[in-house]
Amino acid sequence: MSMQGHIVLLTIAYAALGALLLAVLVRLPFARGVKVAAICAMSVFNIGVFFWSQGLVGWSSATAVPARFQVLWTRVVEPNPSRGTPGAIHLWVEALDENNIPSGEPRAFLLPYAPALAARASEAQSEIKKGNPQGGRAETYAPDIEAAPAENANVRTASQGVAPGGDPSGGGGMLDPSVLGGQTKSVDLMPLPRPLLPPKDMP
Fold this sequence. Notes:
alpha+beta, 2 domains, 6 strands
């Protein structure tokens, strides 16, 4: 489903909830003018939700990245202690199927800043500029990666299981969008694997 389709469904959901609340309002002993004003306000609000949601399009999502993907571009925002911002890593990626074939639907994702992943993202972008396609994969988060000594750490893997990089407050616990969206995986960037094509003798 396209992003526009998601926005339309979100607007319908708000309208359905508003209709339910207005149905309850009709039964309450309020003046007719109050009920009419509430109905008009809710109708305007539902129309506003559709247009306000358009502003969400283009923002990097704090949800988990696809299991396998091609990296189209990267953007590393370094931490700035003076401003209280922890930094962030933006990945523009395209999901790959089991045959390493792109889906044709690029999406932007927001990852928490980690020095190892930031270095790998910058390296991947340099390789992309050279014409060398880059890929990646998401794996189940392993806490022992961060607990291991620095000399034994895998510099190509960085955890997403920390506060979202774009949130100066350091995240909101279980209500944080990264938690609700399943952002509890480690990300590994590497050269893009070749597509697995069927044998030539097959139709």
